Every structure is written in structure tokens, then in C-alpha cells.
Amino acid sequence: MLVDRDGLWYRVLVARYGELGGRLEVGGRSVSCWWREVSRLRGSDGAGERGWFGDLVARRVGDGANTLFWLDRWLGDVPFCVRFRRLFELTENKFMSVADLLSIDSEQWGVLWRWRRRLWQWEEDLLAECRALLLDVLLLLKS
What we know:
8 helices
């Protein structure tokens, strides 16, 4: 999930707890028992260690129908819109689901990937890297 750092709630939380390295602080200026428990969802110290929520929930996409390919963090530690930022900037289909892409044969992926212009060679190399990550992914289809 992308965090709206300009959103009202994010600004309220920063005002209350502080921000360190682009992330909300665990301790902050006035820590509460509630905030300490919430912070454990992402990791015990909030500094790179992943918490139980991210480890056990974030990677479960089932059939992929409700998981956005580019925007959700479903394969790896960051969403594809961050890992493959240039491809995301160029795609016309920013809201396709994982199921949209992975439900068809990999040879036909080009049908779903629509670009604003022809990709340059280094962008083609990024696309090849992205495709390589997807070759071993299997979705759980509903029966």
C-alpha cells in the first residue's frame, strides 16, 4: 500500500510521534502503549526488521484478483512501482491486477503491458528483469 505522506492523517501522526528516515517513529516525542503495539506490526524496532503482519499477510495474494500488480507490495519488499519506477512511469495500465497479468501465458504478457511510447534498450532490460521475477509465481485459483 502506498502511503500518502501529504495526507491529513499522516501529518497528524508525524506531529504526534515524529518521523525518522521517512518513516513514522516508534518512540517519537510522546509514545503511547497503543502506538508501541501498532509499531510492532511492521517490526519490533521499526528500523528494517519486518514484523509479523508483513511476513504473514502482505505476501498472500491468493488468486491475485484483488492485488494491484504495480501498486501493492506482493513480491519482494517494495511494490513494483518503486522497484521498476521507470516502467511504472511509462505504463498505461497502472491499475492491472496480478491476476490480469499472470492468468495468461507469459508469451502474451505484451497484450496487457501497454506503454506510452516504445521502450529504450535499458528499459527493455528492466522489463526482462521484471519478467524473470514473475516466471516462478503461481497463483491459487479458486475452485
